[in-house]
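fwd from M.: "can u put these together and see what the complex looks like"

so here's what she sent:
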Amino acid sequence: MTYALAIVLGLAAGVLAGMFGVGGGILFVPTLIALGLNQHEAIGTSLLAIVPTVLVGTWRQSRYGNVRWRAAAILGLAAAASAQGGVVLAEALPASTLRRLFAGLLVLVAAQVAWRARRRES
Amino acid sequence: MQVRLVLIGLVAGFFSALFGVGGGVVIVPLLLLFCSWEARSATATSLAAIGITAVSGVVAYAIHGDVRVEYAALVGFPAAVSVVGATALQQRLRTRTVELLFAGFILAVAVWLFVK
């Protein structure tokens, strides 16, 4: 993994953040692992890389009038709290089976979102 | 509404820690499907929420010495630049286009999780 490719993947992560409201960790983590970081370092470093990405993204979206601050605070605080529980469980359960169940769930979610979108007028 | 937001946040934090998939993959579709939010406000609010969870996560990992600032800058700064263009583009697309693209993205994440 060259630095140039890492920068390109960083740019791609920002596009995902702006278009889909994700932090970009899904691209940051594999990129950082390819750069030689171990799993824990990659996740910790990805979380730090997410901070400027979502700060700028939130700033732009708030200028467009799209951010609901109160809801964001509730969602964020609840997620920060339950992440602790997820970490404990992640170490206790077989990861691959769970991951595939979650992947299956996401396929259903994708179908539902697409179905809803198709029925939209605009 | 608030109870739903708390539940969505709890589910998002839990799954993100469990699978390493960021909270946004969970928050955005749940806001669309269970709260009937429009795609732009769902993705925008998700970004703000992720800011809170990411900061709290960084603190936890930094305590263990697992945060490499120079690498975070290497990938994070380009992302902070391109997110400006992507949010601008998102405003110009029709809502249904944003939602269909999002469905495709979620599907790609599912495939990635399945094969990795």
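replying to her w this: The helical segments of chain B are 2-19, 24-34, 39-63, 69-92, 95-115.
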